[in-house]
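Issue 218. Parser rejects a valid record. Input:
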Amino acid sequence: MTLPASPPIVGIPSCIRFVRYATFHCVNERYVDAMTWVGTLPLLIPAAGPSIDLHEVVRRLDGLLLTGSPSNVEPHLYEGGDSETPELHDPKRDATTLPLIRTAIEEGVPVLAICRGIQELNVALGGSLTQRVQTVAGRFDHRSIRSPDMDRNYGPAHAITLAEGGMLRDLLGVEDMCVNSLHQQAICRVADPLRVEAMAPDGTVEAVSMPSAAAFVLGVQWHPEYKPQENPYSVRIFQAFGDAIHARARRRLPLAARAAA
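Output the parser choked on:
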């Protein structure tokens, strides 16, 4: 019997948004489009925290994509003191993503963490954040220029240097590149399991990986999901993530399905 083929499932945690007095669980369509482009099925995970069984969710996943967001991780989660941006928090997302990350890594699920996602990855594994990097002496203002022209907002903002011998330099084949920049939170103390993969000239951590993880784990501070097919580095990042997702899906196929594939 030939079993029907089904695409691998990638979980994408949602953000909470309030629209006309109602609460919505939302994900920017760029992330959904990027995941369908690499042949996977995006599954939007509600920001419901402990009210859902995250172990059961992870058991069904072949990949986990952590998205950017206007919201910031709450500082009490990394002993960061009082909040400097109390209007920019999403506690339900925090309550969902942080345990979800730890569970996914424990279960060998490939993880790609983008912008807020790299910050969540770092906090989930024991690291800390700078709440407003633009206020730190010697640092750039990494925030978006906030133009109505999205190509300007997501255009190249500054250079980064990729770590010698790192996963990202090997994947992209370059020592330096330019990236966009749309954040104010940034990694401060890097979590012990993570390796720094790229830095901005001002010392801001721009990418991390987890060498000890059983699967692909990469976090980037920029936004490769913006028109990814037009940027060769974004193409390689998403293709590598997609390859890891498909590899996990093949390993999880029942023997009968594997024989029929």
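Fixed in the parser; the record now loads. The radius of gyration is 18 Å.
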